[in-house]
Amino acid sequence: MDSTGYITLSRQTGLLNQMDTIANNIANANTTGFKREGTVFSEWVAKTGDSPSLSIGYGNGRVVDIMQSGLSQTGGAFDLAVQGDGFFMVQGPNNQQMLTRAGAFTLGADGTLQTADGFQVLDESGSQIAIPPSVGKVAVAQDGTISADGKPLGKLGLWTATDPLSLTHQQGTLFTASGYQPAPDGKIMQGYLEESNVNPINEIATMISVQRAYQLGQSFLDREDDRARNVIQTLGR
Cβ distance 194 to 32 under 8 Å? Predict the structure, then answer.
Protein backbone atom coordinates (compact mmCIF):
# COMPACT_ATOMS: atom_id res chain seq x y z
CA MET A 1 0.00 0.00 0.00
CA ASP A 2 1.36 3.45 -0.92
CA SER A 3 1.50 6.46 1.41
CA THR A 4 -1.86 7.73 0.15
CA GLY A 5 -3.55 4.57 1.38
CA TYR A 6 -1.88 4.72 4.79
CA ILE A 7 -2.90 8.36 5.20
CA THR A 8 -6.50 7.55 4.38
CA LEU A 9 -6.54 4.51 6.67
CA SER A 10 -5.26 6.59 9.60
CA ARG A 11 -8.05 9.07 8.93
CA GLN A 12 -10.62 6.28 8.81
CA THR A 13 -9.39 4.90 12.13
CA GLY A 14 -9.74 8.33 13.72
CA LEU A 15 -13.26 8.69 12.37
CA LEU A 16 -14.20 5.29 13.81
CA ASN A 17 -12.87 6.37 17.20
CA GLN A 18 -14.89 9.56 16.95
CA MET A 19 -18.00 7.55 16.08
CA ASP A 20 -17.49 5.38 19.18
CA THR A 21 -17.19 8.49 21.34
CA ILE A 22 -20.36 10.01 19.91
CA ALA A 23 -22.27 6.74 20.37
CA ASN A 24 -21.18 6.61 24.02
CA ASN A 25 -22.33 10.20 24.52
CA ILE A 26 -25.76 9.47 23.06
CA ALA A 27 -26.11 6.32 25.17
CA ASN A 28 -25.51 8.43 28.31
CA ALA A 29 -27.73 11.37 27.41
CA ASN A 30 -29.92 10.58 30.44
CA THR A 31 -27.18 9.41 32.83
CA THR A 32 -26.94 11.51 35.99
CA GLY A 33 -23.70 13.48 36.17
CA PHE A 34 -22.35 12.24 32.82
CA LYS A 35 -19.90 14.51 31.00
CA ARG A 36 -19.69 14.28 27.24
CA GLU A 37 -16.41 13.58 25.50
CA GLY A 38 -14.92 14.80 22.26
CA THR A 39 -12.26 13.31 20.00
CA VAL A 40 -8.92 15.08 19.61
CA PHE A 41 -7.13 14.74 16.27
CA SER A 42 -3.37 15.09 16.07
CA GLU A 43 -0.94 15.16 13.14
CA TRP A 44 2.28 13.23 12.60
CA VAL A 45 4.66 14.75 10.06
CA ALA A 46 7.77 13.06 8.67
CA LYS A 47 10.45 14.16 6.23
CA THR A 48 10.63 12.24 2.94
CA GLY A 49 13.91 13.41 1.45
CA ASP A 50 13.50 15.93 -1.36
CA SER A 51 9.80 15.19 -1.71
CA PRO A 52 7.07 16.99 0.24
CA SER A 53 6.71 15.83 3.85
CA LEU A 54 4.35 13.00 4.76
CA SER A 55 1.48 13.92 7.09
CA ILE A 56 -0.74 11.39 8.87
CA GLY A 57 -3.64 12.27 11.14
CA TYR A 58 -4.59 10.41 14.32
CA GLY A 59 -7.89 10.59 16.17
CA ASN A 60 -7.03 8.59 19.27
CA GLY A 61 -7.30 11.27 21.96
CA ARG A 62 -10.32 12.28 24.02
CA VAL A 63 -11.19 15.42 25.93
CA VAL A 64 -13.84 15.73 28.64
CA ASP A 65 -16.41 18.52 28.41
CA ILE A 66 -16.93 19.61 32.04
CA MET A 67 -19.55 22.24 31.18
CA GLN A 68 -22.17 22.65 33.91
CA SER A 69 -25.46 20.95 33.18
CA GLY A 70 -28.95 21.55 34.53
CA LEU A 71 -30.05 20.43 37.98
CA SER A 72 -33.18 18.39 38.58
CA GLN A 73 -34.87 18.53 41.99
CA THR A 74 -35.48 15.18 43.68
CA GLY A 75 -35.83 16.07 47.35
CA GLY A 76 -33.67 13.09 48.35
CA ALA A 77 -31.55 13.64 51.45
CA PHE A 78 -28.53 11.99 49.82
CA ASP A 79 -29.10 13.31 46.30
CA LEU A 80 -26.36 15.91 45.92
CA ALA A 81 -25.38 18.08 42.96
CA VAL A 82 -22.42 20.38 42.39
CA GLN A 83 -23.21 23.94 41.33
CA GLY A 84 -20.10 25.39 39.72
CA ASP A 85 -16.61 23.91 39.70
CA GLY A 86 -15.61 20.71 41.42
CA PHE A 87 -16.23 16.98 41.69
CA PHE A 88 -17.04 14.65 44.53
CA MET A 89 -14.18 12.32 45.39
CA VAL A 90 -14.83 8.61 45.84
CA GLN A 91 -12.73 5.58 46.66
CA GLY A 92 -12.95 3.64 43.43
CA PRO A 93 -11.70 0.21 42.38
CA ASN A 94 -8.45 -0.92 44.04
CA ASN A 95 -8.83 1.96 46.54
CA GLN A 96 -8.02 4.47 43.81
CA GLN A 97 -9.24 8.01 44.40
CA MET A 98 -11.58 9.06 41.61
CA LEU A 99 -13.82 12.02 40.76
CA THR A 100 -17.52 12.10 39.89
CA ARG A 101 -20.37 14.56 39.42
CA ALA A 102 -23.01 11.85 39.85
CA GLY A 103 -24.32 12.57 43.35
CA ALA A 104 -27.08 9.96 43.67
CA PHE A 105 -25.64 8.63 46.92
CA THR A 106 -27.01 6.06 49.35
CA LEU A 107 -26.13 4.70 52.78
CA GLY A 108 -24.34 1.37 52.83
CA ALA A 109 -24.97 -1.40 55.32
CA ASP A 110 -22.13 0.00 57.45
CA GLY A 111 -23.64 3.49 57.44
CA THR A 112 -21.10 5.01 55.08
CA LEU A 113 -22.08 7.30 52.22
CA GLN A 114 -21.69 5.46 48.92
CA THR A 115 -22.27 5.80 45.19
CA ALA A 116 -24.81 3.65 43.38
CA ASP A 117 -21.92 1.29 42.51
CA GLY A 118 -20.92 0.89 46.16
CA PHE A 119 -17.85 3.17 46.12
CA GLN A 120 -17.19 5.13 49.32
CA VAL A 121 -17.72 8.89 49.18
CA LEU A 122 -14.81 10.79 50.78
CA ASP A 123 -14.78 13.93 52.90
CA GLU A 124 -12.49 16.94 52.52
CA SER A 125 -9.61 15.04 54.19
CA GLY A 126 -10.01 11.93 52.03
CA SER A 127 -11.75 9.81 54.69
CA GLN A 128 -15.01 7.88 54.53
CA ILE A 129 -18.22 9.54 55.72
CA ALA A 130 -20.28 7.60 58.24
CA ILE A 131 -23.87 8.46 59.18
CA PRO A 132 -24.97 6.96 62.54
CA PRO A 133 -28.17 4.90 62.17
CA SER A 134 -29.88 6.61 65.12
CA VAL A 135 -29.80 10.17 63.76
CA GLY A 136 -32.83 11.99 62.44
CA LYS A 137 -32.94 14.40 59.51
CA VAL A 138 -29.64 14.75 57.66
CA ALA A 139 -28.82 18.17 56.20
CA VAL A 140 -26.01 19.07 53.80
CA ALA A 141 -25.01 22.73 53.59
CA GLN A 142 -23.73 24.32 50.39
CA ASP A 143 -20.19 24.27 51.77
CA GLY A 144 -20.45 20.49 52.22
CA THR A 145 -21.02 20.39 55.98
CA ILE A 146 -23.12 17.34 56.91
CA SER A 147 -25.22 17.59 60.07
CA ALA A 148 -27.92 15.52 61.73
CA ASP A 149 -30.27 16.80 64.41
CA GLY A 150 -28.28 20.02 64.38
CA LYS A 151 -24.93 18.35 65.10
CA PRO A 152 -22.12 18.29 62.50
CA LEU A 153 -21.01 14.87 61.32
CA GLY A 154 -18.40 15.78 58.72
CA LYS A 155 -17.78 17.82 55.61
CA LEU A 156 -17.83 16.79 51.99
CA GLY A 157 -14.95 17.98 49.89
CA LEU A 158 -15.06 19.25 46.32
CA TRP A 159 -12.06 18.58 44.14
CA THR A 160 -10.82 19.33 40.67
CA ALA A 161 -7.93 18.20 38.50
CA THR A 162 -4.64 20.02 39.05
CA ASP A 163 -4.14 19.77 35.29
CA PRO A 164 -7.56 19.97 33.58
CA LEU A 165 -6.16 18.31 30.44
CA SER A 166 -5.25 15.21 32.46
CA LEU A 167 -8.88 14.53 33.39
CA THR A 168 -9.58 11.08 32.01
CA HIS A 169 -12.84 9.17 31.82
CA GLN A 170 -12.44 5.72 33.35
CA GLN A 171 -15.87 4.08 33.59
CA GLY A 172 -19.45 5.23 33.91
CA THR A 173 -19.29 8.66 35.51
CA LEU A 174 -15.88 8.23 37.17
CA PHE A 175 -12.75 10.18 36.26
CA THR A 176 -9.11 10.26 37.24
CA ALA A 177 -6.42 12.93 36.87
CA SER A 178 -2.70 13.30 37.38
CA GLY A 179 -3.35 15.24 40.58
CA TYR A 180 -6.18 16.75 42.61
CA GLN A 181 -6.73 20.05 44.35
CA PRO A 182 -9.65 21.57 46.32
CA ALA A 183 -12.37 23.42 44.37
CA PRO A 184 -13.34 26.21 46.78
CA ASP A 185 -15.85 27.94 44.50
CA GLY A 186 -18.24 25.02 44.03
CA LYS A 187 -21.49 24.68 45.98
CA ILE A 188 -23.26 21.48 47.00
CA MET A 189 -27.03 21.42 46.46
CA GLN A 190 -28.93 18.90 48.59
CA GLY A 191 -32.02 17.33 47.04
CA TYR A 192 -30.79 17.87 43.47
CA LEU A 193 -29.02 15.82 40.83
CA GLU A 194 -27.02 17.14 37.91
CA GLU A 195 -28.23 16.03 34.51
CA SER A 196 -26.04 14.81 31.66
CA ASN A 197 -24.53 17.63 29.60
CA VAL A 198 -25.02 15.70 26.35
CA ASN A 199 -27.15 17.42 23.71
CA PRO A 200 -28.57 14.47 21.71
CA ILE A 201 -29.49 16.61 18.69
CA ASN A 202 -25.96 17.99 18.37
CA GLU A 203 -24.47 14.54 18.82
CA ILE A 204 -26.69 12.99 16.13
CA ALA A 205 -25.84 15.83 13.72
CA THR A 206 -22.14 15.27 14.36
CA MET A 207 -22.60 11.52 13.90
CA ILE A 208 -24.15 12.06 10.46
CA SER A 209 -21.26 14.31 9.46
CA VAL A 210 -18.66 11.79 10.65
CA GLN A 211 -20.47 8.95 8.89
CA ARG A 212 -20.45 10.85 5.59
CA ALA A 213 -16.75 11.63 5.97
CA TYR A 214 -16.04 7.95 6.61
CA GLN A 215 -18.04 6.91 3.55
CA LEU A 216 -16.06 9.36 1.38
CA GLY A 217 -12.82 7.94 2.71
CA GLN A 218 -13.95 4.38 2.04
CA SER A 219 -14.97 5.36 -1.49
CA PHE A 220 -11.49 6.79 -2.07
CA LEU A 221 -9.85 3.58 -0.79
CA ASP A 222 -12.05 1.50 -3.10
CA ARG A 223 -11.03 3.61 -6.11
CA GLU A 224 -7.35 3.34 -5.15
CA ASP A 225 -7.72 -0.44 -4.88
CA ASP A 226 -9.31 -0.61 -8.33
CA ARG A 227 -6.55 1.58 -9.76
CA ALA A 228 -3.79 -0.59 -8.32
CA ARG A 229 -5.51 -3.77 -9.52
CA ASN A 230 -5.87 -2.37 -13.05
CA VAL A 231 -2.19 -1.38 -13.12
CA ILE A 232 -1.11 -4.88 -12.03
CA GLN A 233 -3.35 -6.54 -14.60
CA THR A 234 -2.08 -4.25 -17.36
CA LEU A 235 1.60 -4.78 -16.52
CA GLY A 236 1.07 -8.53 -16.18
CA ARG A 237 -0.10 -9.01 -19.76
Answer: yes
pLDDT in tens, 77-123: 999 999 999 999 999 888 899 999 999 999 988 889 999 889 999 99
CB 166 within 8 A of CB 148: no
What is the predicted pLDDT for the residue at 58?
A: 67
Query: Are 138 and 108 members of one domain?
Result: yes
What is the count of structural domains for the chain? Answer: 2
Query: Domain check: are 106 and 58 in the same one?
Result: no
Rounded percentage of the chain residues whose pLDDT exceeds 90: 50
Same domain, 147 and 83: yes
| 61 and 39 belong to one structural domain | yes
The residues with which 87 forms a beta bridge, in sequence order, are 159
Same domain, 147 and 203: no
* The predicted structure's pLDDT at residue 94: 85
Phi first, then psi, for residue 48 (nearest 5°) are: -130, 45
